[in-house]
Amino acid sequence: MPILAKEGSQKEYFKVPAGTSQGACYDVWDLGWQRSVYQGEEKVQHKIVIAFEIDEAIPSGEYAGKRMTINAWYTLSLHKKSTLRAVLESWRGRPFTEEELKGFDLEKLIGVNAMLGIIHKGEGDAAKVRISSISKLIKNAQPMVPENKRSFPDWVKEFQFKSVDDPSNTETLGDAISPDEEPLAF
Length: 186
Known about the structure:
Blueprint: E1 19-38, E2 41-57, E3 67-75, H1 83-92, H2 98-101, E4 113-121, E5 128-135, H3 154-162
Antiparallel strand pairs: 1-2, 1-4, 2-3, 4-5
């Protein structure tokens, strides 16, 4: 069977505008242990994604009128030097207690609003959109209720399928999750 490429078959994407936007966390995804190369050195780190809706609507196309979304990727760690810890403390408006550092359930973030600093790195269509900061919602702001429902997008399932065993675990963790199966509960 032929695989046809056609002009205009590419989906239309709209970039989240740069600046400060109100957002609401609508999901958190555990990608498992992922291999990456940074400055020529291979690392294996436990990665998560925090997904936000923002108060900006998609202007046209199939999803016109729905809120734009943006994701932030982190290594799953609350070490004192970790980016995730700094972001969560900024978002919460306070540091973690010793008790909270023993284990903080990231699913508590779902539905929580924040002020998101959004930047564009690069020029034109090649510019990458990133969350540069996450902070507590400003006083008297009306909280947004997420419209998106929790889900496991195909790209999340693919990352989970490609995950590797926890390098600190000397026992096997079992078979990987197929991208077509429901992932394990967090």
